Amino acid sequence: MKDKQAKRKPGRPSEKQAVNTDNILRLALKAFAREGYGGVSLNSLAKEVGVADSNLHYHFGSKEEMWKSALNLVGGEIVKELENLSRLIKDLDGIQQMKLFNKQLVYVSARYPEFQQIVVQEVFSKSDRSEWLVKHLLGNIYQYVDSIRKEEQKKGRIKKVPNANMTSFVIGSITTLFSRSYQMQTLYGLDPFDDEEVERHAEIMNDLLFNGMLIKKE
User: Which class does domain 64-213 fall in?
Assistant: First the structure.
């Protein structure tokens, strides 16, 4: 008697095995942020998200491709938010535009702390991953405020601080509260992700940054 159940051909997982790749990538991002790239394997990720590791191999191919896909997903959402903001504020004064971009960077840093944690882990030194991260995501995220800052420097409205120093100062000031959330909670007894704390951080950062950046007229 022939087996009535035909064997499934290798390749695409059956419908029963279908996975929500966006959800998996968000969980993967948390794992990479928590454990570091070297501390994560497709097998450990499969156990964490509750799917067969063959599913992860099928959808993402390798750990590195899954890492890139997770960062692309969240990084793409951040870039989209900044693109939308850019369209909304294009008619405003340049200083006001910079302040709003800074506030938006505070908001996305609070919403996606794992993204910032991975950036800190990876861009300390050169590697294939850090090179990919800088070229494919970070340049797109920071291009908006960088271009406005250059224009305001040409106009003589803000100090001509070298780009590397300004970027490290601004980004470090904005993101550290969230990328070091445990430190802040332990030392100062606050929840960095509380809505009021996020808004307070955005206001304080703009106040401190622009008091030091603006050229004051005598």
Answer: mainly alpha
